[in-house]
Amino acid sequence: MAKSLFLRSLQSVLFTTPYSIEHKLAFSTEFLKHTQKIFSNDPSIVTAPQNAPPHVPKIEIKSPNQSHIAQFSNDRISFLYQDTLNAKPSLAAAFQHFMSGFQQEIQSTMEFLNPQVVRMGFIVRMIADIGFSTNRFLSEEFLKNNSFPDAHEINLGILYRLQLEGFRVNRWVRYRTLRAQNDPSIDYAMAIEIDLNTFAEEMNNFSSSEILQFYNLTYDNVMKDLKNYPLLDLDLESGME
User: Fold this and answer.
1) Residue 230 banded pLDDT, cuts 50, 70, 90
2) Per-residue H/E/C for the chain
3) Which one of 27, 95, 113, 224 has the minimum C-beta count within 10 Å?
4) pTM above 0.85?
5) What is the tens place of the pLDDT at every residue in 84-116?
6) Cβ density class 79-99: b for 16+ within 10 Å, e for less
7) How far apart, in whole angstroms, are the C-alpha atoms of residue 195 and residue 159?
8) Cβ neighbours of residue 209 under 8 Å, at least 6 residues apart?
9) Beta strand pairing status for 59-62 and 167-178?
């Protein structure tokens, strides 16, 4: 069991066919009208020049404390919630908060941009502090012996392919050991990422209702199916410390 497990962020990614935003300021204004609950009255808005590389967001909107970030790129749209206030919410509470804003974000995006959403992803990022070497823990937990006693870093990924009602989904669980910047000999922390995404080989045209259904299904899968994974065997509906 982890000494402590902290939620870092929740992120939805909508992969789209290339789309255009003819009037960036007008779209941003309309988007913020629908999402005032998330971005409050003083958001930060950054727009990219026309000749910017494809990976640079055309529009990036941040809440004042940067706990919510919306990015609109050439072929993807991302909505991020991160615990910038160090509130250490439970996954259940954070997801409820995330979805209350996400519904408004999706409604506004589909109404004013109408992109063709071909794939979707849901990413949960956490940090575990176990109080001793995470490199040793991963080696002993997964390999049953300390096969790599001198490893500086271990990256481990477990992939499942699932059927969540009408969605065929990849589910990655990734563990990555971390070291303290001020003392690299300390490796007590670990990044844990859960990434569920629809198959890359299947192109779709998801509706707003299907998008919301996907995120509810993937959240349920995280809550119900991952408690037997190392460091995730805790009550995710309550606090994480």
Assistant:
1) confident
2) CCCEEEEEEEEEEEEECCCCCCCHHHHHHHHHHHCHHHHCCCCEEEECCCCCCCCCCCEEEECCCCCEEEEECCCEEEEEEECCCCCCCCHHHHHHHHHHHHHHHHHHHHHHCCCCEEEEEEEEEEEEECCCCHHHHHHHHHHCCCCCCCCCCCEEEEEEEEEECCEEEEEEEEEEEECCCCCCCCCCEEEEEEEEEECCCCCCCECHHHHHHHHHHHHHHHHHHCCCCCCCCCCCCCCCC
3) 224
4) yes
5) 988 888 888 899 999 989 999 999 999 999 999
6) bbbbbeeeeebbbeebbebbb
7) 9
8) none
9) unpaired
- Ramachandran angles phi, psi of 117, nearest 5°: -90, 110
Report yes or no: 36 and 104 within 8 Å, Cβ to Cβ: no
Per-domain boundaries in the chain: 4-225
CB 138 within 8 Å of CB 157: no
- Band (pLDDT 50/70/90 cuts) for residue 235 is very low
CA distance 135 to 184: 12
Two structure tokens written together for 42: 């003083």
- The residue with tokens 């209702």 is 209
Q: For residues 143 and 166, give the distance between their C-alpha atoms in angstroms, rounded to a whole number.
A: 35
Whether residue 20 contacts residue 97, with contact meaning beta carbons closer than 8 Å, is answered with no
Nearest to 97 by CA among 195, 206, 219: 219
List phi, psi (to 5°) of 138: -65, -40
Contact call for residues 86 and 94 (beta carbons, < 8 A): no
Q: What average pLDDT is seen over the chain?
A: 88
Angle 157-158-159 (CA atoms, 0-180°, nearest 5)?
120
Taking phi over 0 as left and psi of -120 to 50 as alpha, with beta for the rest, 81 belongs to: beta
